[in-house]
Amino acid sequence: MAEQQQNQNQQSTAGAVKAEIARGGLSQEAAAGQIGISGAALSQWLRGVYKGDAEAVADKAAGWLASRADRRALRAGLPEAPPWAETPLAKKALAALAHAHLASDLAVVYGAAGLGKTVAMRRYAGLRPNIWTATATEAASSVAACLSRVAAAMGLRLDQRQRSAAAIEAAVVERMAGSGGLLVIDEAQHLPTRSLEELRALHDASGCGVALVGSDPFWLQLSGGRRPEFAQLFSRVGMRVRLGRPGAGDAAALLDAWGLSGSGLEGAATAIATRHGALRGLTKALARAHAIARGKAVSEAHLRAAWKALAGETLPAARNGEPNQGGKSK
Fold first, then answer.
1. pTM to 2 decimals?
2. Core-most of 77, 123, 151, 188, by most CB within 10 Å?
3. Which helix (H) or strand (E) holds 233?
């Protein structure tokens, strides 16, 4: 009797897994990877012919189903952020990218984390053809690794004979030359001198625009003391843009993108935007504020509570004679 009940439970779980796979538009192989078993094991278990520990598979599958349900519930409570907010900082970043693109020049965009550099980069890439974006990391900072990421961003399919740095460089230059495109490297502060020089060489050889996007120390790395190893690169920078501290205009643009313009949240939003996390922090706070509001209009109290939960600090009250954090006089 107990064995029969166990089989019924496994069949019920298997049915739920099939429904979840269909609901999520997943392949069985992808679902198996998320569950933590092989594709063959999942296929056999779903058909009721698995010869291994079927109960263990059922337990893993049940955990996966619960995790998927919890994730849906969380996402339902936390609305998706708007894909784009035309903040003053974003306009500055877009202007630099447009210059590099249209003038076939080399531009540098830099600033602190959370200012929307990557979002602006993706926005520009979505508006124009032949905009290739690659992200640098410490793990892929060598010349060959950097070129491989650029080639992947361009969709180049290289065979085994084209895996050397020189061969990848040739293929990339061929793709860039005459394309009227733009190569954008995000997180460029992770790249050492040799890799940065390689990107400069791509620009020189192809006549194609290149934009380097990075953190505040990146420009200091290029310009500090006019280091001789960066002389070639530094001399080719046709436009540099530093994204500074966000202001009221940036907070207002983000509120507008969320449909909260004129909601009385301007003061609190500006206070959050000027703290650590900047506009990224404000975006997260607005998402959590919506969840706290539970379908009601987001208020200053909701936004303050959201920031408290995220940052562990309370926004200061406005001083006498100044607008309070909700944008009204005290």
1. 0.78
2. 188
3. helix 231-236
